[in-house]
Structure formats: structure tokens, C-alpha cells
Amino acid sequence: MSVDLSEFVSGFLAEAADHLRNINANLLLVDTAISKQGANPRAVRELFRALHTMKGLAGMVGVEPIVEIAHAMERVVREAEQNGGKVPPQAFEPLLRSTQAIAQRVNALAAGKTIPEAPKELLHVLGAIDLGAAGSRRSPLLPLQPQLLEKLSQSEIEELTQLAADRHAYQLSFVPSIERAARGLNIAAVRSQLASMAQIVKVVPVSLPASGLSFLLLVVSSADPAELARIVECEREQVIELVAEQPVEAEPIEAEVSEPESDGATAADVLRVDVRRVDAAMDGLGELLVTKFRLRRALAKLEAKGVDVRELSEVVQDTERRIRDVRSMVLGLRMTSLSELLDRLPILVRGLQATTGKSARIELDVGRFEVDKVVGERLWPALVHLVRNAVDHGLETATERERLGKPARGTIRVSCARTASSRIILCIDDDGAGVDAERVARRAQRPTPKDASELLELMAQPGLSTRTDATKTSGRGMGLDIVRRIVVEELGGELRLNTTLGRGTRFLLEVPITVAVVDTFRCRSAAEQFLVPAANVEEFIDVDARSVVSGPSREQGTQGVRMLFSRGKVIPFVELGALIGLGGAERSSKAIIVRRDDEYFAFGVDQLLGHHEVVIRRLVDPLVNVAGVAGSADLGDGRPTLLLDLIALSRKLEEQAA
User: Fold this and answer.
1) Which pTM does this prediction carry?
2) Rounded distance, CA 621 to CA 73, Å?
3) Any residues with CB less than 8 A from the CB of 317 and at least 6 apart, and which?
4) CA 72 to CA 51: how far, in whole Å?
5) How far is CA 325 from CA 288, 321, 369, in A?
6) Are strands 240-242 and 168-174 parallel, antiparallel or unpaired?
7) What is the enclosing helix (H) or strand (E) of 187?
8) Residue pair 358/443 in contact by the 8 Å Cβ criterion
9) pLDDT, averaged in runs of 10, over the chain (658 residues)
């Protein structure tokens, strides 16, 4: 009987993504250990486990090329584990290339394309790696029973002996019983509790003549031994500290691994959901929001007819509260961690070092921030372009940096902060040479920019590059143009630049956390209703005719730019209806103030109609996809209401003026 394995593919893809992240993370730890001429046994062991699981999963769904690559990598990593976790330098690049080869084949499977065969040349290189020299060190003697010591691999022994000043190795014993099981205390619960304060190296089941079974746990921890004894419910004296009788001949290096911070969730609490089901839930949420608008309209009509709607109004308010709760839950399902999104950047930087000949490192400091999966997928190419430019254009060579008194190795730092609205600011810093505005202007054959905003506009011109020849990493003049298009046009965010010659460059990307459900203000202009994202709005003001003046015009017979005086600022002012070709009142009663790159713009409207949460439908048809229109929403009246991007409209105004 044949079995259709296609139903397992979606599960494999989700599992494979997790294991690839794990493989990349541990490869970076291995690379750090190699650079210090040391070993990281725990990283090597975790790397082997991830590869072994990946191989098994790929075999289950019949992806033989991945099985072949993972098996070849497994041999190298297994030998390194048996030799104390030390990976020779010549093995790292083939392991990294093999990981990329696995990722390419996973992506091909996800896209429904033909999966390439395993690269024979790469398999040959992996098979030729000799790790014999790595195992020349003598193993330390631990005070363990010979039967238990035989069950430990060389890397586990190394892990129990490579200790920091405040960490110790202990042997614990847990004896299960019916009474303990009734209280929920079993070996799984013990492991879960210990993981929050100790690094579990090995759990060995031991047969006992009287009680039947016990578990010996070998852990590394800086916690009080009495606290460890409390978890396994044994006497303090039964917590045995393990001290090696002789040191390892080679100088030990502390394994650069930290246990992940626990947020109270365990693997059993995690449920994988197909993204199509999440999208279906979002569609359902959109229908609920439309129903909410229809309820409000029907309620207003009944009230206008004199019907007592107090009880019905309470029901509608309760329904709206519940819809808000559902909205939070559905959006939570779509969220992805920024740290997971960015964990591929260190691998990217390492590859760029090889192609550019520059020495660089990257620091990631994004905490526990999350973004909508759609935002993350759109943001990733922009971040790749900025990091690539930072290495290739921003950082100097090691020789030049030393001449300037800088560390030979350049640093790129990616950090994150949250704004008062539902937006985040990603900051990409480098300590390189900075941007020479005069050189960029000469290359573009334009006047020298007066400030950072004008410099960014110039650098983002399509086709502009400071390189004369295109390389593998840059030189085609598309980098910043793509970044601005993604951040500003696709995500409705802001892109800013700060740079200082000789000290470095900073890019600031302010983007919404989600583009699915948006907080908006509804307004009326020229008898039409529009939505404006609340995140774009600085304030609403009443327009006093005496505070609006018209400036001089460059052309005879045309009206000059109108300016609005508000709170001590002079702000360019335009009627929204006239801007989009609908005509309307010459003097609007209200104005919406927006800010772009520290500059303010005012858009006049006839009336403000309220605040709404709406599900946005993006306009993909090129006939209606124009600058300044971010999408549409249904407010329950059966007509699409356009969502206006006032930031993009302000930029369009400047371009027209120029």
C-alpha cells in the first residue's frame, strides 16, 4: 500500500526552518570557538542533534538530497563531538556551505520546484575532512562510577569540566514514586524545573534492586546546591559536586552557550498552525469588523426614528469589546520574533567578510520585540541590503582602520525600540567611514545635499552607485532604492539617515508592527470619505482663516504655496480634496498634521468622523495602485473606503514642487 507523504510536507517545512536556525546559531558558536583556538562541546552536540533530526525528517518526506548532505555533515560533527567538541578551522566553511545547500533545497520544496541533487563536490570535501588531530588531548578523570563514565561522550566530559568561576558540575539523583507522580513530579517535570537554573548535560536511567528505577542527572549550574536538592526532593548531601582529578592538557575555553530565558511555555504548549489557517482567521476578523460597522449604522438609524435602543446599545458595546479581544488573539498568532527574523544576519556578515576582504562583526539587540509575519517577510530584504552596504561601503579595511586608530574589526549593530504608536524603530549602525556627501553628489552630478534628508533622497535614486564596477555584493545602484520602496511605499513607514564622516552611519527604519489591522481616523473631504492611519497623525487642529497665508508664486497667474501657522511653526498647507483632484472647499475647517523626517505638513479636510479599527485590503492592480493610496477597507456600507498615506502624499508634493 502506497502512502501519500504530501500531507507531511507543511509540517516538515516548519520543523526544518527551526532546525536550520538552530544549526546556524550553533555554527556561529563553533566559529567563535575556532577563532579562540578552543572548543565548544555543547554547541557541537546541539549541532549534531539538529542535523540528525533534519536528516530523519527529510527521509520521512523523501527529500534524499537533504538526507545526503545532512549525513555527510553528521559524520564531521560526530567526530568533532567524540574529540571533545573541537572543530578544525578547515571544516567550518564546508559545514557552512552545506547548511546553505540544505536551506536552498528546503526553499525549493516550499516553492514546489524541482529539488537539486546533493552537490557532489561538497560531499567529497566533507568526506575528506580529517579530524584525527583534534583528539590528541587526554580526558580528565571525573569522580563517577565507571559504568556511568562509559556512557558519557568526550564532548559531555569536556562540558562538565570547562567551567566558569561561578559554575560547578553536580550529580543529582531523582527517584520516581507513585506519591510523587500523583503530585505531578516526574522526570519530565524535574528536567523542566532544572532547565531554568542549570545546564543539563546528561540524564541516565539507573536500575535499582529495591525501588526499580532512578535517574542520575549531571548538570552544570551556579545555583545553590540546596536549591537543586529541593527540585529533585533529595538531601543536600546527595548533591555531589564533580571535580576533575586532572586538568585537560589544552587550555580550556568556556562554552559560549547560555540557556534560553524561559517565558513559562514548554514544547508541549506550542501548537504549529498552517499560515493559511491564520490568514483565514484574519479574513474572518475582517468580516466581524464589517459586521460591527453595520450594527453601528443600524443602531444609529433606529435611534434617529425614536426607538429606545439602550439595551441594544449595551449589546453592541459588549460585542465590540469581544471583537477587540479576538483581534488581539488573531494578531498574536501572526506575530514572529524579531530575533528569529534577524538570526541569519551573522551568517550573512561572515560570508561578506570572505567576498569583501574586510573584518566585521554584527551585534543584535532586539530583545523580545515581535512583528507581523507579513511585515517581517517584507522587511528582511531591506535589512539585507543595509547590512551588505554597511560592510561593503561603510567599513574600512583592517589596515585603514588601524591607521585611523580604530579596531581592525568593524562593528555593525542592529537594535530596536518601540514608539508610542503601534510602530517599531529598527536602527542599523556601523562604525565605518560615514557617507561623503560631496562624493555622492559628484557621482550623481547633482548639487551637494544640505542635510541628511537630502542626502538620503539622493542616495536612494534608482541606478546611483558610488562604485564604478559592479561586484558580487554591490555596485548596481539598487540597494537604497529597494530599501526605501519597501519601508516607505510597501509598509507605510519612514526611513531616516544620520552619518558622520570618519565615525559611521546610522539608518533608522520606522515601520508598523502590523499592516493587516490598522487604527485609522475617518475624515471627509469634497463629499468623499477617507481613512488615515493613526500612526501617521501628529495632531488635528481647527483651521483659523487668519492663520493661513498664500506665498508668492513662481509663475504668473498661479496660486503660490499656502502656509499654516500653528504652535509657533509655519507648515505647508494643502486642501486634501484639491490635491487628489476632487475639488472641495477653498477653506477647510480642520487640518491633519503629519510629520516626515522632522518636517511637518498640513492637509485640510472638511470634517473628522471618528476612529476605527479596519482590516486593510492592499491594492495590487497597477491601474489603481498609485502613490498616496495604501489600500482600502469596508466600513459596512458596501463601498470601499480608501486608506490614504499622507506621508507619501507629502513626498509627492515636494517632488512636484521641485
Assistant:
1) 0.65
2) 47
3) none
4) 10
5) 12, 6, 21
6) antiparallel
7) helix 187-195
8) no
9) 54 82 86 82 86 81 85 85 80 88 89 87 84 50 68 68 73 85 85 83 76 79 87 84 57 35 47 72 81 85 87 87 83 83 84 84 87 87 90 90 91 86 86 88 84 85 65 57 84 86 91 81 85 83 80 52 79 82 70 80 86 76 69 78 82 66
